[in-house]
Structures are given as structure tokens and as C-alpha cells.
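*** C-alpha cells ***
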Amino acid sequence: MKSSLLNMVLSLGIITIVAAGLLSWVYTQTEAPIAKANLDKQIEAVKAVTPEFDNDPVAEAVEITPAGEERVLKVFPARKGGELVGAAVESYSSKGFSGDIKLIYGFDAAGTVTGYAVMEHAETPGLGAKMDTWFGPEGKGNVIGLNAAEGELTVSKDGGQVDAITAATITSRAFLDALNRASAAFAQLKAEEK
């Protein structure tokens, strides 16, 4: 083929169409397995963070928009014998060092934090990524057993009661921002059920 503008445009066009077709095919092949893996991860997180229940919180999930918020949070009510014993709340914060973080928090009926699971984040490895363990029972900033309904949880640097991750205060603030948002959604669920 002679090197001309028309031949170059045709070659580039054909390559682009083939690449787009391949990407489309890969997407359709992986879409369902990825969605299933995400659902399985969500189900496991709900089981891990909530008090013992005998219902299907994922099937009974409701969407709640806490007062003053724009985005909807998914709340998974946990019931035992028909009584609300707690819930898992899928929350987020856009205040992370590297963007959005997405977590699931567990609460008992009184609104006390029973656990959490980090679902997505892009925080700095070795620093902000420590939130997986830092705020848990063995971590220095343990939030398990605290109740955000009694007052917003903040880092000690801001006069609060939770120790921030060393050298990752922004991530710690984002973690607590998401927790406070989740607590508000759970309080709203309890109010709506009364």
C-alpha cells in the first residue's frame, strides 16, 4: 500500500474499529462475573459487620438520603424474630486524600458501631490504606463500640475522640465523615420504622 493520507486514515479507522469491538466483547464477557463478585463482597461485608440476624438484609435493603445530603445510601436492616437488631449501611466520603472512599458500617439497635468493611478506596498504600485495620478492635483509632448518634465522631487533632492514622489525617477524617453519614442514615431508618 502506498503511504498516503487516505491510506493512513483508513488503517487507523480499521484499527480503531477492531479495538473498540474487542473492548466491547471483553466488557460483555466480564460484566456479569464482576457484578456477581461485587454482590458477594457486599453480602460478606454485611454479614461481617452486623449483629446476628435471621432475615435477608440484602433483599430488604432500602435507600435513604440523610438530611442535608444529596447522595443516597443503601441501608441493610438486620432483624431477629422480626425485631430490628441493627443494620449495615453502605456509605462514602469524597474527602479522601485520593478521592472517594466507600465503606460498609455495622450498627446495633442503639446505633453503636459493631464493625466496618472497606469496600473501595484509592488512598496511599502504607498510609491511608491502613484504615482496613486502624479503626478496628486492634487498631489505635478503634471506633467499634462508639456511637455517632451521641455526637459526630472526629479525629483527636480536631478535638475529637478518635486517633487519626499516623501521617494520614485526611483519610481518617474521610473515614469518620463516612461513618457519621452512615450513622445519620441508620437513625433515619429507625425513625421511619417507629
User: Anything to note?
Assistant: The first helix runs from residue 5 to 49. The longest strand covers residues 83-96.
